[in-house]
Design goal:
There is one protein chain. The protein has 161 residues and is of the alpha/beta class. It has a single domain, classed as Glutaredoxin. It is 47% helix and 19% strand. It is built from six helices and six strands. The protein has a six-stranded mixed β-sheet, with helices on both faces.
């Protein structure tokens, strides 16, 4: 009788833990919809940060994420925002990649709702979807664009400024 109660309590604990983990995991990646880019800029008005755009279908993006994960594990003060352009991706797919590269603590978004063309246009009118792509912001109004693979040297130079 006591053993059955312990087993039930153990199972209940596992179910409760699993449910709480899925709630917190889902909140890690925000939906990037029309207006999200403005929200990101507004939250960082006078702060330097890097916006990194990536996709599950982009082999070079994985190299970049690996580098970012290594830097993140050495320096938790990185001010980076990740935006996945995968409209159809599931939270689980994206979280698996972020976990693999130890980027779970980095603010992350995923294109959602609107068409990807409209969302790209909000970020940069001259961006046609090539990835990886990064934006270095000195403030919300001054930006430098890096199209292609981001180098650790370039990122570290920006961070140290």
């Amino acid at each position: 009788m006591v053993r059955n109660k312990l087993i039930q309590l153990y199972i209940f604990s596992i179910v409760l833990l699993t449910a709480s983990m899925s709630v917190s995991s889902e909140s890690l990646i925000r939906p990037f919809i029309s207006g999200s880019f403005s929200q990101i800029l507004e939250q960082r008005q006078e702060k330097s940060f890097v916006l990194v755009l990536w996709s599950l279908d982009c082999p070079s993006c994985y190299k970049e994420l690996e580098m970012l994960g290594q830097l993140n594990s050495r320096n938790t003060d990185l001010n980076i925002v990740l935006v996945s352009t995968d409209i159809e991706a599931t939270q689980d797919e994206l979280l698996t990649v972020l976990s693999k590269y130890k980027l779970e603590n980095i603010e992350s978004w995923v294109f959602s709702g609107d068409s990807d063309e409209r969302l790209r246009f909000e970020i940069d009118r001259s961006w046609y979807g090539e990835l990886p792509r990064s934006y270095f912001f000195k403030s919300s109004k001054k930006k430098q664009v890096v199209s292609g693979l981001l180098s650790e040297k370039k990122l570290m130079t920006f961070i140290k400024q």
